[in-house]
Amino acid sequence: MNIFDLSGRVAVITGGNGGIGLGIAQALALSGCDVSIWGRNAEKNKSAAATMVAGPGKVDTRVCDVSDPASVNDAMKATLDTFGRVDGCFANAGIGGGGRRPFIDRTEDEWRKMFATNLDGVFHVFQAAARHMTERSASGDRFGRLVATSSLASLFGTARNEHYAATKAAINALCRALAVELARHGVTSNAILPGWIRSDMTARVIADEKFVGAVMPRIPVRRFGEPSDFGGIAVYLMSNASSYHTADCFVIDGGYTAF
Questions:
Q1: Where are the alpha helices (DSSP H) in 84-199?
Q2: Residue closest to 189 by CA, chosen among 135, 141, 148
Q3: Per residue in 83-105, pLDDT tens?
C-alpha cells in the first residue's frame, strides 16, 4: 500500500491557476487526487487545468473571488455537486504588498483590500470546507485537511509590507486554532511558509539584480524556489501519512531562515 496514494480524495486549491497553487494542484493530481482549481480568471483556470489532463486525478475549475463569501459558497456547492466530497482545502489565493509605500502613508483602502483577500479569503474558504468536513465526520467519515499558504513575512520584519505580514501572521494563528478545535473530527490544519519563490508575485524583485545580489547569498541551496517545490509537502499533508501532524508551520525556503 502506498501511503501517498490520493486516489478517491478531492482537494480544492484556491489560486490554483498559477505559481505555488498550480504546483500544489499538479502534484496532487499526479498522485491520483481529484482537484478543483478556484481562481478569478476563467481563462487562466482553463490553462492550468490543461497542464493536468494526462494525470490520473480529475480536474475541475471554478471562477471564485475568495474575498466574497457568496462566491466561495457557490464554488463549494458546485465542487461538491461535481465530486461529491471535499477532503482537502488549500487556501493559497493571495495578493502581495509591493513593499513600496511607507507605513505612515498606508491608505485605509490598501489595508482593507489586503485583509479582504489574504485573511478574510482564508476564513471564507476554510469555513465552507470545515462545515462540510465536520458534517461528514458526524456520519463516521473522519478525514479533512486544511492547509493555508502563509509567508516568511509572518516571522520577519518586512519594511513597507506590514499589512501583508499581518495577514500572514494571522493565518499561522488561525491554522493552529483550527488544528485544536477540529482534531476531534479527523481534520488537520497546517500552514506553509514559502521563502523566495519564482511566481508572478515575485517577478519584479527577482528581476532586480541588486535584490538578487543581496538575497541569493542567504539561500544555502543557491537558487530561488519553484512552484514544483511545494508538490511534496502538499501530497504529504493531503495523505494518510500526515494524520498525526497538525498545528504546524512548514518553512519551505531553501534554508533561508537558517542562515
A1: 108-118, 120-138, 162-182
A2: 148
A3: 999 999 999 999 998 778 999 99
Amino acid at site 118: N
pLDDT per position as a tens digit, 148-160: 999 999 999 999 9
> What DSSP designation does 216 have?
G
What is the number of alpha carbons within 13 Å of residue 44 lying toward its C-beta? 16
What span, in angstroms and rounded, lies between the C-alpha atoms of 171 and 128? 16
Q: Which residues contact 208 (CB under 8 A, 6 or more apart)?
A: none
> Does the active-site annotation cover 164?
yes
**pTM for this model (two decimals):** 0.97
Give the amino acid at 84.
Answer: G
For residues 234 and 229, give the distance between their C-alpha atoms in angstroms, rounded to a whole number: 10
- Annotated active-site residue in 164, 236, 244, 256: 164
User: Which cell numbers hold the place of 75?
Assistant: 464554488
